[in-house]
Every structure is written in structure tokens, then in C-alpha cells.
Design brief:
mainly alpha; two-stranded antiparallel ribbon; 65% helix; flat; DNA_pol_V/MYBBP1A; nucleus; ARM-type_fold
């Protein structure tokens, strides 16, 4: 239908253009001649339509062709007649003129008067009006209106207008009411009206503009007639369908819009206030809007645009009196007409009077408060809900409603009150603004009754509308209103949508969330309000449910002190169940409000709290926030400062606020009411109305530990001057704060302590005080680090006593004693008789401290372990050999029983030379019939035989009987003291469990923590002789099969420490306390380890691929250990100035390894490893070169001889350098080894390998030797050594390579 309509328009337009071109010279015609023009136009239209109809009859086509030919003939004749006339210029447009006279052979026609004949309307005006270029359209409209003004002016000057009208009607009939308009103007109006219905390019915009201008400047145009002409020209007939109907209706809308914007309606009313044109226009426009829904909103905008230009009087007396408007408003609430509501709101805004026409849409009397009341929102709910029809575009109604919800006064007031520089007194004393209160009430009602009640509980389209409305509100929304907008139901809806990615609304919700994040980007107040709303209504699980990082990102964007403080205060208020979160930071600082110091008050405000306590207790229960939400609050507190880039002073202030809150909520309870005021601190403290569960109190303590630990990492004690007061330190401030709260009678610890814990708690408090004094007295000395680290550890231990009562009292007492003994300047209280009883033989203070640290490791939290590591870092230089061995014993300890302990002990004492000191033999070699557990245990015991290697061996304190039924009676008190306390606990726990799996996992965890201390020791003491002890014990643990079985993580951790802290360390032990024999023996064991073959387990069942892969990886790790250990031990040997006799023993070790390599297939020694050893220590390769040649020439296995060629070649190259300065020396050395070289070559060529790669290696080696011999002029000597048989074999195997050497004369 659309293509046919355009075809008709184009045909008609073509004929009209041709007629218009020659209209100024056409003679007077009768009215029937105008009908002929229409006939011709209709004929062309029918022709176009027929061309598109495939089923048209051939006779019909012939008739159309005849009509077209007849019209063309008439046009040609007319053109010839015009050329002969005197009224036209010589050059005419080339378009074909259409003769409107049906009888071309009639008598001569009279011409138009000269004035009319001289006027013409260029065709390009109408064409340019449809251009997509706005400037072209505007220029065409301007030119058109100027031309029409000129034509109309000439027409009005004619004395006989009747004769002019009758001469050429151009489709403009006399009864159209435009009698005072020139024919060209009447034609132009008709064509412009038809043009606004065209969908071609920008025809509607251009023709609407072209219609607006003539109507606005040519007063001769009658508006009533023009309205009738618009209806008649764009009427919808019964034969129209689909697109044709839509184009006609849209054309009428654009025509009415042009008429409204022309200003003529207002001018006519001003000239005649009784004129009904405005009422008729309103009726026509509203009647058009009622035809189709898609016409309603643009029609309302046309009417509103017109009403804005009108005075109030015609709006009341004409616009609002239109019958169609009354009918429209009457039915609006029933059918759900959002456009009627929009029009009513704007009209009421215009007239500012309560008119009866608004009775069903607006409250009487009108006010925003009544408009957003629950009853009225229920009445107009249908109108607002039906605005979803225009999605994805948002209906214009919502911008008006949003402006009503958030008037400018509220937005400006919010901007003023959110200025950070405003004083606290001004914020406190600022009276509530009635406008703000009304706006808050309005938006609360709107969100509750409409958003939640009508949209969020309805279809997807209406939920989409809810998101769109909030996006409109966001730019002007004050932070204090966020709690109403992001309500419980909305947040729940948002979470449901975001949790399902295939939801239809998922993209909508994601876009809303992105816009929300962008909105709060530069405003901490809004960011806090949004974060609180999301978490409060999701029970602290918004990120978990939505699978996003929204809350995490919001909490990480606070970069200023004000922002961090505001977030902190909101979190605290959320924790203590303050449902209303004020927007002002000053109102939230519950812990900073000074109390009024009246003389009749007691030390606390317990009396005031007790007054309302009985009344409040009955209402407590469901008002509190959930424990999950409170746990999120607790976890978020230490992270506030994580991303904030604050000055040290500002960071300390925020830290103190967090510290006080965690201490109050985690450590203490108020026995009277929920509020207590401290006069000493000038602060008021609050607790939730419901008692805080013990689990949350523990969380507070854990976060308090984390906060103190983080402050320790940031602090640098040596950077503090003597003039800096200690209370600025978070630890000192915490202890002072703790002491102050303990002195308040109505405040008590959240749990009661037993006598031992209470005694330890008080002793630790005193210890911290003394340590603080000593640290301050030390100033910038190095001892300040030790005091500082101890002070942090003591505070962490104090908190651990509250977390785990009954477990740390003994460790606390020991730590206090260590502080007392280690620093004579401390005057710490002594125990009740404990000090006098141990005067006989007291262990070293560092041993006691180390045992205490080890006993604290198993059950300690991450912050406490960090403090332990800091203490160990500053004291590790004082660790005794005994203490270090106890730490290493923990790493090697295994809970599995050693079934053949006695037999293995006896073997160890025998010192069998074949026994592997580093436990490198697989368990299958020891006892293949034994199960996996027994095999592993045997190897564990074998690993301890390394103690015979060095004099500083580790004393094995293994129980005599280690079966599962054994008890600890075999250990005396001294052994229990030396053995780590936690290991004894592991033994006890193992007896009470089947299989001991839990004990094993705990032991692995303990080993990992001890390894961290050992790593610190190696880092701080890289050149200490004890590094060798650490290396030997860690190597034993690494090669022990039970280590890999217990934990792969433990195995990798040990290997990482050995590599990074021992092998790759810049420093290494250079002390001469380690004897040469021990180093030689250690080197021999490492070389055996590097040559250790991989053996799969001999079993009837094939092991799984996973076990095979794990075994192979472990084998590679052990081989790598042997190789790197060899490099490291050789570095130590080279650093010592040993005699030649001692170094010869080192060479003997390598000779034995080379013998094993050439004589057995079992050796897995990599030839590349020996190359690296010879490269790093060239003297070894030079001394062993002759032996290497001999063993290679007499090798039992051909593949070994070929593999060693590269090693021989590289060693010979370094041994015999060929240059002018070393020619004689190299020649002499070469002669020494020439006989063995000749023998090796004879063996190689006599048994040339069949493998292509090995054969290439032989040729390459021989080529190198021949080149060196030739360069040193020793060819004849080599040939002599080869002998006739050898030369023959060389010629046969090497060919030209040997012949070239033989032909060389030397």
C-alpha cells in the first residue's frame, strides 16, 4: 500500500509541476477544464498503479497508453502555442506543460492579466523541502514564503479577481473557503498539506515548516477554511489500510502543529475574542489524538506548545471549554490515559486554578502533598502504569512528575547542606525545611504505593519503567532520599534480576547499576547512602546474590578523611540498630558527642540509660539488624583505610575511631541500658538494643587484631622522635582506652575470665605499659624495634586470651617472664614464687622466648602470626643452636609409627658407608614386601642419618616406643620442655583419633608456619654457620617420602626456601668450624643424589597416572636438589683455602662418580650436570681430564662413551686453549693426553654407532680433535698413535674428514 501511495503522489506531483511552470501564460478556462487536469492526474496515477498490478488485463493497459499519448500530444501543442506568444521569455523550463483544456482545437484563449502572468512558482522549492539537510529545507521554506507573498500581493492588486480565479483554478476549488487567496497560494497550501503526509526523507518536517511560514505572514488565509482543508485533504477513507492511514493521520498532526506554531490562532483571538477558532483547533487536535494511541503524546505536546504562548484567559475560556477535551479527561482514569494526566498537570500549572475539568485527575485543592497521597496515587494509578506503551522511550509525563517530586528548592537546599566546609553547629542547629519534609513524604509515598505496589509487583515492562523513573530521579536526588528510593522491595527486585543472567531485564538492571555507580562517583555522601541501602536491604549479601563487586567497589572508593569518617559513622549506626541514618556526618558521630558535665551526674550516664531500659526491653526483638548484616559491618571496618590515600595524621584519626568501635562492641557490655558516657574520654558509647552474640564479639576482636597488625606494618618505630608522644601510637591508644573502659562500673567484659586468664590479662597490661616506657626511652636506637615488636605481640596475645579463654594463660605468663629476663630495665612483676624455684639451672632466655613463640603458632590468628614473625625477625640473631634444632625437628617430625625403629637405630649407629645420608633411596629398596606406611617410616628414619655427617648434628629425641598404644611416660620433664609444646599435644590428639588424619593436617599447618620463621632466619643470617644446619635438615625433610605424602604444599615450600634463601643467596657460610671431611662426605652424598635413578614401585597393581606423575615430579625435585647442592658445596669448598692433599679427596669423589657413570647403567647422572660443574670449577675438569679419557676409552657401554664426547670436547677446549700466547703450553699438554685420545678415537671408529644422531656426534667430536691437532702441528703424533689399523678404520668411518688430516704435513 505504501508503494502504491507514493507512486500516486509522484505522478500527481509531476503533472502539477508541469502545469505550474506554464500557468502564468495559460488562457482563461472553464471550470470543467480544471476537472480535466484532475482527470489527467488520475489517469497517470492509475497508470502507475496498473503498472504495479501484475494481473491487469491487456485491454486496460492499452486504454492507459492511449490516454497518456493523448495527454502528451496536448502538452506538445500547448508548448508550441506558448512559444509564439509575446508574454513568455525565450527560454522555458524543459518540463512538459500540461494543457488543462480538454479540447485543444477550440478557439483561441484569453491570457491572464499582465500582473498575474508575470508571477511564477519555481518547482525546486517543493523538492528542496523534503531534503535531509536542514539548511536546504529552511532556505526553500524562506524562498517559498517570499514568493507566495509576492504572488498574493500582485493578486490583491488585480482589479478583477474573479476573472483571474476563473482563468486557472489549479485544483483550488472556489468553495474551499480560501477565496481571498491567489490561485498559486491556494495550490501551494494544498500541496503543502499533502506533503506533510509523505514519509519520503524529511518531507514531513520540511513541508510542515513550509506550511507554518505562509500561514504566519499571509493574513488572507482563513484559518477555519484551512482547518477544513486539512481534514478534507487528509481524510481517511474506508479503502485505506495500514501505512496509508498512518501517514494521513501523522500528516494531520504535523499540519495542526504547523498551524499552532504559526501564531495566527493567537492573533485571531486577539483581534476577535469571541472567535471560536481556538476551541475548534483544540477539538480537532484532541479528536485526532483519540483515534490512535501513538498520536496522543505528540498531540498533547502540540497543544501544550500552543498553550504556553497563550494568555491565561483564552486557555480557560476556549481551550478548556473544548467538548473533546472534557470527554478525554472524563475517561482518562478508566482507560488509563497518561497523556490526559500530563495535559491536566501542565494546564493546571498554566492557569494555577482548580478547574472542575481536572476533578478526576488532580486533587482539589491541588498540592503536591495531596497529589502524592496514597488515595490519589491509587486513583490515577492506571494512567501512570499505561505509560509503558512507549518503551523503550520514557513517557514525557515522568519528567513532570519527577520535577514535582524533587522541586528546585529541595535540590538547592541539599546542595547547600552538603558543603563540607559548613560548621557542625550550623548543621546541628539547621531547622528542618517544610519543603524538604513535604518532598521526603511525597517521594516516600510515591515509592511505597506506586513504585512498589504497582510497578515492581507487576510485569517486566512495568519493572522496566520503575528503573527508568529512578534514572530520571537520580541526577537531582538528594542523598537523604536514597533510603526511600532504594527501598527493600526495589533492592530485592534488583537482586533477583541480576542473579539471573538470562533474564529479560538483566541488561536493564546492569545499566541501572552502572548509572548508579557513576552517579555516586564524586560524592561520598551519596556513595555511603547507596552502600548502606544495598547492604541493609540485602542482609549484607548484595554482592553474593548478584555475582558482582558493586558493594566492594563502592567501599573501596573513599579517598578523603571526610568520606572515610562518614562511611564509618554509617556503619556504626547500622550496627547499633539506628534505623534512620541522617545525612549529616555530625549527627552520626555517636562516639564523639561530648556529654554535659553536670555536678549531679555520676561518672556514667547509666541512670539516664536505666530510665528507659525497662520500657525499651519489651519492644526489642525484631527491630535489630540481622547478624549477617552486622558481620558485614565488622568486616568492612578495617578495610576503610585500605584504598584511602590519607595523611598519617588523618589516617590515625580514622584508625582510632574504628579501634574504639571494635573495642566497645567486641570487648565490653553495658550492664545498665544501651548507652554509657565516659567523662574522662568525653564520649558517649552505644550498644545494640539486642545483646550482641558472642560470635560477633569474636569477629570484632579478630578485626581489632587485624587493624593493629596493619598499623604495625605501616609504622616505622625508628622514625619516631623522642618528642613524639606515645598516645599517637594505635597500640598505646588502645591500651589506654581499654583501661579507661574497665574503670567504668557499669561496663564489663563481654565474657568472664577464670582466675588464670584474669591474672594473665592483667600481667600483660602491665607488661605493655612497661614496654611502652622502655621503647620511648630507647628513642632511635635499634632496641626500639625489639620493644615495639614485643609490645604488639603482647597486645595480640591479650586479645587471644579473650578469644580463646583457658588456652593462652600459660604462654602469656612465659612471655611476661621473657620480657622480664631479656631486658633488665623492665621492672615487671614476678610470679607468685615462680621465680625463686628455678634458680638452679634456668634455660636460655631466647630458648624460652622461642618455645613460647612456637607454642603460640598453632592456634594463632593471621595478625598474631604476623606479630610473632616480627618479634622473631628482631631476635633471630640471638637464637641458640638448640633452639634452631628444635625448630628444624618440627619440620622433620612425622606422626606415622616407625615399625623397625630399633633395627634402623642400630644400623645408623654402625655408620654403614652404603647408607644414604640424605634418605635418597626409595622405600622399595628397603623393604619391598612392606606396605606404604612402613616403607615411608623407614625412609623417615633413614633421613636422620645425616646427623653423622657434621659434628653439629641434630640430637634425635625419638621416644623409645612409638606405637599407637604408647603414652608420654617415656619423656621426662626436661625432654618435654625441649620438645615443642604443640608436638606433645599432637601426640595426645593422635591417640584419641582413628587414623590421626586431623592431627596430621594440623602438623602440616604447623610446619608451614615454622618454615616462615626459618625463612626469616635465613634472610637475616645468610652467612651464619648455622645455615648449613638448616640446609641439612631441610634437605632431609625434602627427600623424606612422607613429606610428599603428607602435603605437596609443604614439599614445595621447603624446596622454595632451599632454592631462594640458600642456593641463590648472595652470602653463604664461610666459617671454618665445619671440617673438610664433612664437606667431602656431603659432596659425595649430593653427587649420589644427582645420579639417583628413578624406580617405580614394584607392585602387582599398576599405580594411577596421578601417583606416577607425583612420583616423577618428586624424583626430578630430588635430582635437582642434588645438582644445586653440589654447586653450593663446591662454592663453600672453593672459598676455603684447603691443601692439595685435601682437594685430592674432592677429586676422588668425582672419580668415583665418573666410574659409576661409565661402568653401570643404573647411574642417571646427567652429562650436562658434569659439564656445568667443570665450567664453574675448571680445575676439577683439568685434573680429571686424563681419567675421563681413560674411562671413556674403556667404557663398558657404547652409549656412555658417545654421551661423554661433548664433555671431553668442552674440557679439552678450556684445557688446551689455542692462541699465539699459549701455543707451546697447549702443545705440551696435548702431547700428554694424545695417546689416550688416539685410543678413544680408535674405539669410536672401530664401533661406529648405527644410530644416525650418535654417528653425527662421533664425526663432530673427531673433527674437533683433528682441527686442534692440526693447529698444534701434532698430526704425525696422532697418526702414529692410531696405528695402521686405526687409520684404516678412520678412513672407512670418517672418509674425507680423516683424509684431509692425513694429507696435512706436520
Amino acid at each position: 500500500m505504501g508503494s502504491k501511495k507514493r507512486s500516486n503522489d509522484d505522478s500527481t506531483e509531476l503533472l502539477e509541476n508541469n502545469i505550474l511552470t506554464d500557468s502564468s501564460t495559460v488562457m482563461k478556462k472553464k471550470k470543467s477544464k480544471t476537472d480535466k487536469i484532475d482527470t489527467v492526474a488520475n489517469a497517470d496515477s492509475d497508470t502507475a498503479a496498473a503498472a504495479e498490478a501484475p494481473g491487469a488485463a491487456s485491454s486496460g493497459k492499452d486504454m492507459e497508453k492511449k490516454k497518456n499519448r493523448k495527454a502528451s500530444d496536448k502538452l506538445r501543442k500547448r508548448k508550441a502555442a506558448l512559444e509564439k506568444s509575446d508574454g513568455l521569455p525565450a527560454s522555458l523550463p524543459k518540463s512538459r506543460p500540461v494543457d488543462v483544456n480538454s479540447n485543444s482545437d477550440e478557439a483561441g484563449e484569453e491570457s491572464l492579466p499582465a500582473a498575474a502572468a508575470s508571477s511564477s512558482l519555481p518547482l525546486n522549492y517543493f523538492t528542496d523541502l523534503a531534503s535531509s539537510d536542514p539548511s536546504v529545507r529552511e532556505a526553500a521554506a524562506d524562498s517559498l514564503v517570499l514568493k507566495l507573498q509576492e504572488i498574493q500581493k500582485q493578486y490583491e492588486m488585480l482589479p478583477d479577481k474573479e476573472s483571474a480565479d476563473g482563468g486557472l483554478m489549479l485544483e483550488a476549488e472556489k468553495n474551499d473557503g480560501l477565496d481571498n487567496c491567489a490561485p498559486h497560494l491556494r495550490y501551494a497550501l494544498r500541496r503543502l498539506i499533502r506533503g506533510v503526509s509523505s514519509s519520503r526523507e524529511c518531507a514531513r518536517q520540511g513541508f510542515a515548516l513550509g506550511l507554518t511560514l505562509p500561514v504566519s505572514v499571509i493574513s488572507s488565509i482563513n484559518l477555519e477554511s484551512l482547518l477544513k482543508l486539512i481534514v478534507d485533504s487528509l481524510s481517511v477513507s474506508s479503502s485505506m489500510k495500514g501505512q496509508d492511514i498512518k501517514e494521513c493521520l501523522l500528516g494531520r498532526l504535523f499540519a495542526y502543529g504547523a498551524l499552532a506554531r504559526s501564531g495566527r490562532l493567537i492573533e485571531d483571538w486577539q483581534s476577535d475574542k469571541d472567535s471560536q477558532i481556538i476551541k475548534e483547533f483544540t477539538n480537532a487536535l484532541i479528536g485526532l489524538a483519540a483515534k490512535k494511541r501513538y498520536l496522543q503524546e505528540p498531540a498533547v505536546h502540540v497543544l501544550l506548545d500552543f498553550v504556553e504562548k497563550l494568555p491565561t484567559e483564552p486557555v480557560v475560556t476556549h481551550v478548556m471549554e473544548a467538548p473533546e477535551l472534557h470527554k478525554w479527561f472524563e475517561q482518562a482514569t478508566e482507560v488509563g490515559n497518561p497523556d490526559a494526566l500530563l495535559l491536566a498537570l501542565k494546564l493546571h500549572e498554566k492557569i494555577s486554578v482548580d478547574h472542575p475539568i481536572f476533578s478526576k485527575l488532580l486533587p482539589v485543592p491541588f498540592s503536591p502533598g495531596k497529589f502524592f497521597s496514597a488515595d490519589h496515587l491509587s486513583a490515577i494509578g492506571n494512567c501512570m502504569k499505561e505509560s509503558t506503551f512507549c518503551q523503550p522511550r520514557v513517557h514525557s509525563l515522568w519528567s513532570v512528575i519527577c520535577n514535582m517530586l524533587l522541586p528546585e528548592a529541595v535540590v538547592q537546599s541539599e546542595d547547600v547542606t552538603s558543603i563540607p566546609s559548613s560548621s557542625k553547629k550550623q548543621k546541628r542547629n539547621r531547622k528542618s525545611n517544610p519543603v524538604e519534609e513535604e518532598a521526603a513524604n511525597n517521594i516516600r509515598n510515591f515509592c511505597e504505593f506506586f513504585m512498589e505496589g504497582a510497578l515492581l509487583s507487576s510485569s517486566h515492562d512495568r519493572k522496566h519503567l520503575a528503573f527508568d523513573i529512578l534514572l530520571l530521579l537520580l541526577p537531582k536526588l538528594p542523598a537523604s532520599f536514597i533510603q526511600h528510593v532504594l527501598s527493600f522491595k526495589f533492592v530485592q527486585c534488583l537482586m533477583d534480576i541480576l542473579s539471573t543472567k538470562d533474564s529479560w531485564l538483566h541488561k536493564v538492571a546492569t545499566h541501572f547499576l552502572a548509572q548508579l555507580m557513576d552517579w555516586v562517583k564524586d560524592d561520598d555522601t551519596k556513595r555511603v547512602a547507596v552502600t548502606m541501602a544495598l547492604q541493609k536491604h540485602s542482609e549484607g549479601k548484595f554482592d553474593n546474590f548478584t555475582h558482582t563487586k558493586t558493594v566492594k567497589d563502592l567501599a573501596a572508593e573513599f579517598e578523603t578523611e571526610d568520606g572515610c569518617t562518614l562511611f564509618l559513622q554509617n556503619l556504626m549506626n547500622l550496627f547499633v540498630d539506628e534505623q534512620h541514618v541522617p545525612e549529616e556526618p555530625s549527627n552520626m558521630k555517636w562516639s564523639l558527642e561530648p556529654c554535659s558535665l553536670n555536678s549531679d551526674q555520676s561518672q556514667t550516664t547509666d541512670d539516664n540509660s536505666e530510665i528507659g531500659s525497662n520500657e525499651e526491653k519489651d519492644s526489642v526483638g525484631t527491630t535489630g539488624n540481622s547478624d549477617v548484616l552486622k558481620s558485614w559491618v565488622i568486616e568492612s571496618l578495617p578495610g576503610i583505610l585500605k584504598h584511602a590515600n590519607l595523611a598519617p595524621e588523618a589516617k590515625l584519626r580514622v584508625q582510632k575511631q574504628i579501634l574504639k568501635f571494635l573495642a566497645v562492641q567486641g570487648l565490653f557490655l553495658a550492664s545498665l541500658g544501651t548507652e554509657v558516657t565516659s567523662f574522662e574520654l568525653q564520649e558517649k558509647f552505644k550498644w545494640p538494643k539486642t545483646a550482641t552474640p558472642a560470635a560477633l564479639c569474636k569477629m570484632c576482636i579478630e578485626q581489632l587484631q587485624l587493624l593493629l597488625s596493619n598499623s604495625q606494618k605501616i609504622e616505622n618505630p625508628l622514625s619516631k622522635g623522642n618528642g613524639l608522644e606515645q598516645p599517637d601510637d594505635p597500640v598505646s591508644y588502645f591500651m589506654k582506652f581499654l583501661s579507661t573502659l574497665q574503670n567504668i562500673p557499669s561496663v564489663s567484659l563481654f565474657r568472664s575470665l577464670n582466675e588464670a586468664d584474669e591474672k594473665a590479662f592483667k600481667k600483660l597490661q602491665e607488661t605493655v605499659t612497661k614496654l611502652s616506657k622502655e621503647e620511648k626511652n630507647c628513642g632511635l636506637s635499634a632496641d626500639a624495634n625489639k620493644f615495639h615488636a614485643l609490645r604488639h605481640l603482647v597486645v595480640q596475645l591479650l586479645l587471644q586470651i579473650l578469644l580463646h579463654p583457658g588456652e593462652f594463660s600459660e604462654a602469656a605468663s612465659e612471655l611476661s617472664v621473657c620480657c622480664d629476663k631479656a631486658f633488665s630495665s623492665l621492672d615487671l612483676p614476678k610470679g607468685d614464687g615462680e621465680g625463686e624455684a628455678d634458680d638452679e639451672e634456668e634455660p636460655a632466655v631466647m630458648d624460652v622466648l622461642l618455645d613460647t613463640l612456637l607454642s603460640l603458632l598453632p592456634h594463632s590468628s593471621a595478625p598474631m602470626r604476623s606479630s610473632i614473625e616480627q618479634v622473631f625477625k628482631y631476635f633471630c640473631q640471638d637464637v641458640t643452636n638448640d633452639g634452631l634444632l628444635r625448630m628444624l625437628r618440627v619440620i622433620k617430625k612425622d606422626l606415622k609409627p616407625a615399625r623397625h625403629q630399633e633395627d634402623q637405630d642400630s644400623e645408623d649407629l654402625d655408620g654403614d658407608d652404603d647408607e644414604d645420608c640424605l634418605a635418597i633411596e626409595e622405600e622399595e629398596e628397603e623393604n619391598e614386601e612392606m606396605g606404604e606406611t612402613g616403607e615411608s617410616d623407614v625412609q623417615t628414619d633413614d633421613s636422620e642419618t645425616v646427623t653423622s655427617v657434621v659434628p653439629m648434628a641434630v640430637d634425635r629425641e625419638v621416644p623409645a616406643n612409638s606405637d599407637d598404644s604408647d603414652d608420654d611416660d617415656g619423656m621426662d620433664d626436661d625432654a618435654m620442655f625441649r620438645m615443642d609444646t604443640y608436638l606433645a599435644q599432637i601426640f595426645k590428639e593422635k591417640r584419641n583419633q582413628v587414623g590421626g588424619e586431623t592431627a596430621q593436617s594440623q602438623l602440616v599447618l604447623f610446619k608451614l608456619r615454622v618454615l616462615s620463621l626459618i625463612e626469616i632466619y635465613l634472610h637475616e643470617n645468610p652467612d651464619n654457620p648455622q645455615v648449613m644446619t638448616v640446609y641439612l635438615n631441610l634437605a632431609q625433610a625434602l627427600v623424606n617420602p612422607s613429606t610428599a605424602e603428607s602435603s605437596l604444599q609443604l614439599l614445595q615450600r621447603i624446596w622454595g626456601i632451599i632454592q631462594k634463601k640458600i642456593f641463590k643467596a648472595k652470602e653463604f657460610p664461610k666459617d671454618e668450624s665445619m671440617e673438610f671431611s664433612a664437606l667431602a662426605t656431603l659432596l659425595e652424598k649430593n653427587l649420589k643424589l644427582a645420579a639417583k635413578p628413578f624406580k617405580s614401585k614394584k607392585s602387582g597393581v599398576d599405580p594411577s597416572k596421578k601417583k606416577q606423575s607425583a612420583a616423577w615430579n618428586r624424583h626430578k625435585m630430588i635430582t635437582n636438589l642434588g645438582q644445586n647442592s653440589t654447586y653450593w658445596v663446591m662454592k663453600i669448598i672453593d672459598s676455603r683455602k684447603f691443601s692439595e692433599t685435601e682437594l685430592e679427596k674432592i677429586l676422588d669423589v668425582f672419580r668415583s662418580v665418573i666410574v659409576g657413570y661409565f661402568d653401570t647403567r643404573k647411574s642417571q647422572l646427567k652429562i650436562e650436570f658434569l659439564e656445568e660443574v667443570f665450567r664453574r670449577r675448571p680445575w676439577i675438569g683439568h685434573q680429571l681430564f686424563g681419567f675421563l679419557l681413560e674411562k671413556s676409552g674403556n667404557a663398558k657401554f657404547e652409549f656412555r662413551r658417545v654421551e661423554a664426547l661433548e664433555l671431553i670436547s668442552e674440557t679439552l677446549r678450556s684445557l688446551v686453549p689455542i692462541n699465539e700466547n699459549t701455543q707451546e703450553g697447549s702443545k705440551k699438554t696435548m702431547k700428554t693426553h694424545l695417546k689416550k685420545l688416539s685410543h678413544l678415537i680408535k674405539e669410536l671408529v672401530a664401533k661406529i654407532p648405527e644410530n644416525k644422531a650418535r654417528r653425527a656426534q662421533v664425526r663432530k667430536f673427531c673433527g674437533r680433535i683433528f682441527q686442534m691437532v692440526s693447529s698444534l702441528k701434532l698430526t704425525n703424533s696422532l697418526l702414529k698413535g692410531l696405528g695402521p689399523d686405526g687409520q684404516t678404520a678412520c678412513e672407512s668411518a670418517l672418509g674425507d674428514l680423516f683424509l684431509n688430516l692425513k694429507n696435512t704435513e706436520h
